[in-house]
Amino acid sequence: MLLLLGSLVACNDDEPATTKLPDGVTVRLDQSRIQRQGRVVFLRVHNDTKQPITVARAVLASSRFSTVTWSGQEEIGATYETDLEITLPKGRCGTDVDARVTLTYQVGGGDPRRSTTQAEDPYGNAADFADRDCAELTLQKAAKVTVGDPTVEGTGRTSVLHLAVTMTPTGERDDVRFAGFGSTVLFRQAPGSPADVDVPLGPQDPPAKLDMQVVPARCDAHALAEDKVGRLFPVKVVADDVSENASYFLPLTKTQRLAFFDYFRSTCGLV
Fold first, then answer.
1. Residue extent(s) of CATH 2.60.40.10 domains in the chain
2. What is the CATH class of 142-267?
3. Residues 190, 242: contact at Cβ < 8 Å?
4. Could you give the CA distance from residue 228 to residue 57 in angstroms, rounded to a whole number?
5. Which of 49, 111, 118, 206 has the most CB within a 10 Å radius?
6. What is the structure's pLDDT at 32?
7. What is the pLDDT of residues 43-71, one digit of tens each?
8. What are phi and psi of 87, to 5 degrees?
9. Do residues 94 and 63 make contact, with C-beta atoms less than 8 angstroms apart?
10. Assigned CATH for 18-123
11. Burial class (CB in 10 A: 0-12, 13-18, 19+), 96
12. What is the pLDDT of residues 129-154, one digit of tens each?
């Protein structure tokens, strides 16, 4: 028993001390533009303590996401910052994200510490992820979404790309409605497109046969060459547990995405 007690005390001694995060250390959640098509985000840890900090572990917790852990050995110099990359899991429906981060770290050559702080979300990236996931999961439960192959009507600058989208109600929800497709930096919804609609997807409703119609929002090679989000078309969803103006991105295959680029190049005379 004495040996067991001694080992338990030793284990407790190895645990980092829990303390308040030093003044000058902040954590924020963000995502770079080139990562917008995926779920990789970063925790930006800013150090303004005038001493180097070494981070060994970061745990992100929120009521809208399952807990995510980063571990490694990242030294942050005095008056400097670093980004700890993590992959956000699928989010849940809800209201406030209330993201909190628990850091395990050392200040200078001191003993390990553990501190919990609010993770700032200045651009609403975490909230957007959670709302998109909620909208997607809600619509998937209410209807089966089928996306057809893009077709082009007309020629030159007056041509329009059409994309057939069918939403067939599953009968599992009676409060879900499709509210329209959104535009992107490369494409805008044409006048005949269902961009602002109110289509019920309840058990008694017929399949919604939609014809998304888009035209280039701009015509320059630079925009096309550096585009990362031009084919992420918002699908607006309305339901009891979905945030106002929430949407998710229309799922497109590689072939469908290439068809949008081919249309853009052809219509804008970039071929």
1. 18-123
2. mainly beta
3. no
4. 31
5. 49
6. 74
7. 999 999 889 999 999 999 999 999 999 99
8. -110, 120
9. yes
10. 2.60.40.10
11. exposed
12. 999 999 999 999 999 999 999 999 99
